[in-house]
Amino acid sequence: MRETLVLNASFEPLSTVSLRRAVVLVMQDKAVVEQAHPGLRLRAAAVDIPVPQVIRLCRYVRVPFRQRAPWSRRGVLVRDRHRCAYCGRRATTVDHVVPRSHGGRDTWLNTVAACAADNHRKADRTPEQAGMRLLSQPFEPTPADALLLALGLGPSDGVKLPEWLAVRAA
Ligand SMILES: [Zn+2]
């Protein structure tokens, strides 16, 4: 299935997202379908929407198009799906991999989501110094991810569309 084009509320093209992501945005009332695949609908128990080719966001979002996503604590938590980078449990804090006292900065590649206990345990040390291992490496969101972050959705997960929601001809 092709990607769906996302327009800002101002009709300015922003990005493309997967069909699944587009449907989630429509189902969450964050976007409306501007153009649909002719003759195709998504059907499930309580869902019947056209298969979107183009959707438009209901609310205008400021997204740096083809630029780097601005770093934010909230963005790091969303990117990491609120999972602690050290133990995988629920994270509520942001940890600087290289501590700020060691010259570490507020960047995507130097920050990870962390649970309060691990953040406290690691304290003012690098993972090596603290004897802690990162379960996954921090990464910089792509421009498409930046759009999802602006909408409060993670780049690779967030809201899941039910597997049984299939595309059928109308
Ligand atoms: Zn943890």
Automatic annotation (TrEMBL):
Swiss-Prot/TrEMBL keywords: Endonuclease, Hydrolase, Nuclease
GO molecular function: endonuclease activity
Pfam families in the record: HNH
Domain HNH nuclease: 71-120
PANTHER family: OS07G0170200 PROTEIN, SLL1193 PROTEIN
Name of the protein in question: HNH endonuclease
Protein source organism: Streptomyces humicola
